[in-house]
Amino acid sequence: MAIHSSGVGSGIAIILILLLSCPNTLAQTSTAFDPANKFSVPSYNGVISFAVNGTYSSATFANNTWIFTNLRLNQSETMASLEISTSNSNVTVIYYGVNAFFPSNQLSYFAQGQGQQFINMGLGSSAGRSVDWVVFSNDTFVTNGWSVSHDGTVTVTGLTGNVSVIYFGFTNELGNNLPFYEQHSVAIAVGVGVVVTVAFAVGVNIVFKRRSAKETNQVA
Asked: Does a structural domain hold residue 20?
């Protein structure tokens, strides 16, 4: 069967015209935001904002929850997914980080108002155990005032100021199938990871406080 070069050339030309006229079909677009942007949760009397500039691929609002995809804050890691909501409080997201050495995911934010925050960092149902999570409020480890559901959604209640929600990715098998002394080494590793992660969170919160104080003085 003979193939006419003129027909092939015409087909290529049509494809090139389509690609040139629709460049966004190949590239994923990002939307930029800054601290002035507010994401309201009207039914819950809550507002979500960010302490720094950033971008996201999409931001949708469903079931009183903001769902961000490919969220990237300046000086933070990219979050493939963040589902966040707040009730009777205003939340300013400060930082998101991933630590590969002590496998952990950390979200730090500032909460105004003794309400609730609902946070899902897209870690899946494997993150649905409270023993894998730690929460710090104003740089202090807290055991009350928060819970985690089977799908990895953390609910924080009544905590104000600087809050850090941290997930450690050590599995059940890592501890249960090891000898006694090796299980203790895992616990020590987790403890050291908490110290390192929180030390960084403290630094981030100090920068946020200084920036907020500077902005307040400028307004005054």
From this structure: no
Whether 174 is in a domain gets the answer yes
Which pair of tokens denotes residue 133? 């999570």
Write the CA distances from 216 to 48, 77, 93, integer angstroms. Answer: 20, 28, 19
Over residues 81-91, the pLDDT tens digits come to: 999 999 999 99
Q: Has residue 3 been placed in a domain?
A: no
The CA distance from 40 to 180, in Å, is 49
Measured CA distances, 127 to 118, 140, 150, 185, 212 (Å): 15, 22, 7, 22, 33
Q: How far apart are CA 26 and CA 6, in angstroms?
A: 27
Query: What average pLDDT does this structure show over 106-124?
Result: 96
Cβ-contact 91, 117 below 8 angstroms: yes
Which of helix, strand or coil describes residue 35?
Answer: coil
Beta strands 46-50 and 90-99 are parallel
CA R_g for the chain:
23
Q: Which residues pair with 110 in a beta bridge?
A: 92, 162
Pairing of strands 54-56, 104-112: unpaired
SS3 state at 8: helix
Is 127 a member of any domain? yes
Length of the chain: 220
For residues 156 and 91, give the distance between their C-alpha atoms in angstroms, rounded to a whole number. 12
pTM, 2 dp: 0.72
Q: Closest Cα to residue 108, out of 153, 161, 146? A: 161
